[in-house]
Amino acid sequence: MPKPSFTILIADDNPNNLFTLETLILAHMEAHIVKASDGEEVLKLLLKERFDLIILDVHMPRMDGFECAQMIRMRPADKEIPILFLTASMRSEEARSRGLDLGAIDYLRKPIDDRVLINKLNGFRRLVERERGEQQVLKQEVAVTNKKLMVAEELTVEVVRSMSAGLMVVDGDTILLSNPSLDTLLNQVEGLTTAGGARSTLVALGCSEAEVVSIFSGEGFDWRDHAWEASRIGQLYTWVSVSAVALGDGRVMVLFRDITEQKLFEQTLHDALQQAEESSRAKTEFLGNMSHEIRTPLNGILGIAQLLRRGEGLPSQERYLRLLHDSGMRLLRIVNDVLDFSRVEAGHIDLVEDSFDLWQLVADMVELHQPEAQQSGLDLSLYVDPAPALPLIGDEQRIGQVLLNLLNNAMKFTEAGRVQVDLRLLESAGDRVALRLSVSDTGTGIRDEQIKTLFQRFAQGDNSRTKRFAGTGLGLAICKVLVEAMGGSISVKSDEGRGSTFSVQLELKTASPEQLTKPLSEVLSNDWQGASVLVAEDDTVNQIVVQAMLENLGCFIDIAGHGLEAVQKAAIGSYDLILMDLHMPHLDGLHASAEIRAAEDATPIIALTANILPATHKECLAAGMNGYLSKPTTLEELEECLSVWVADKRAAEAPSTAYEVETKIEDKASAAFHQATGTRPLDAFDEQLDDGFLDQQKRLLGTTFALMVKAYLQGMEDGVLAMRAAVAAGELEDLGGHAHKAKSSSLQLGATGLVQRCKELETAAAEQLPLASMGAQIDQIESVFRALRPRFENLIV
Questions:
Q1: Residues 420, 443: contact at Cβ < 8 Å?
Q2: The predicted structure's pLDDT at residue 89
């Protein structure tokens, strides 16, 4: 029979009391009872068995109940066992308090009341059973948790072992854990192991001193890639990515990843990209060179044709000239397609946002093609919806280019029938309008399989060797890119043998009254008659063409055969405009322009070049040019250039009315003086200061500005004295140097009139004019300086 779970130890020196207690307890509950006659026997029994309750008599021989309880409480295994004291009397509260201090939970008085005893024992038993139940549940939970921990530990170990990244957990210089991947990484270097400790291993793996310090401080750091020099074999080495994660209590997990394959892949991509960019640059350079080589003779062909057609000729000559001009224009369109394609591939699509009349643009395009349509027997018609109240904002030239291409294609592929252009207003909301511009024809049409590739580069409707229609196959691809760059879309519907319709949908803004621009004919001035133009061009045909065009426009021409000659002529001559070719012997146009600007010559320089790739424009501006014209150049483009750079310049430099009156009343003596000395009279321009430039200098330089002005005033005082001394000694080279210095310093302070005076003196010294003339010029410089001095002094008050 199994032993009852509730175990009681009874200690009493009276056998009758032991018998009575045992009988009484067993009569009311199941319990395992062990008896002891004194305290020493109690202690011996506690060494053998675990008890749930001890009933201890207070008065026993050799060791009383208090002493026995004290000994029980001294043993850690038994100090929590409940003790119930038995006593026949309790002499004082002090004795009762002593028993409670020793861990007694209650007292039973003799003679024992069986009801009190049993009630107390049942309460103790319930407490023990509940505690045992809780301990059992806790034991089961601990067992389950331990099992989970064991599984997690096994899984963690397996994950760590299977990690592709090398792992090392360190605590100071001690390596607590590492995995096989770390060993594999270390094995790349002969003799390298973790046996030397954490520091030596980290340093060997390429960690910096700062990273080692961070790890030993219990801190982490983010991923860093480095070439592991210890593994280098020739030009090959392993790339390692390292990071550290703080785990707490000073422990740090360090991770190492072998990223060599990733780096090789990145390098492969980089090399491929670089090779592609080099190929693109080579192609762009080739197109630029091809452009120059083709457009240069085209300039002669078209220019001569245009000049001849302006003169009088026989009917037969007119026909030949028209054929010559038309052939040249077709060739030019092909070149422009190739160059536009180059811009598209390079990502250089620059759009202009100006106000323009789309309805007028479309009407002009249709009217322009009417003669060709009539000659081909085609019916070219136009249908437009009413125009909005205001012109639109967009790139007129690009939209015109798209329409021109669609019209040319429609007429080229339509042998008979009609071509119709439609401009429809789809929607108008606020300041935006949605439009559809379509070109329809009754021509050959396009097969379904051809439509899929129609807008791809080099795609053509007829690729056979017997094809009837010429072309580059770039036009529609360029149209697609241009339309999409403007935020629109282009599509085609076609029925083979019955015709095609190309549609362009755009959304454009309407122009506000402030954004309206005047037509070019109203803006341009023709005040260039008698303008002096230096043309720097090495090609003989182009020299003749440009000279004839400019003379036709009423200009005086000087020709420079190469860049060096252009620099020399610009230094000694006075020109209203310089047209500069870029590709010339001895000195190209860019370097020639830079040298002209270095000599502080502000004459407008316009590049006249056959290379019109996007980078060319930036190079021209960087060299000091004001703009550029592309070859072949038309008379209309030259007229616009003269209007912008010559007529406007003359208007800006024109003397005021007051000066004109002053000139008229100037006395004869003064006029005779200026004529004798070769000088010009003082005017309002001499005392002109660029106030905006001075304000900018003042903001940029701060307190240094005042020091600069003071230095300038003193320098000019000394400079005028030095000029006079140089004239007196006949040292013209020194005079030119002092004049140049005064010119440069005056330029820094915006004294534009004084700059011009000093420049004239510098030129006079170089040309060795009479000393009296240069002395008079110095007088004028001093006079202008004296007039400007108070204004400079006010700037530093």
A1: no
A2: 63
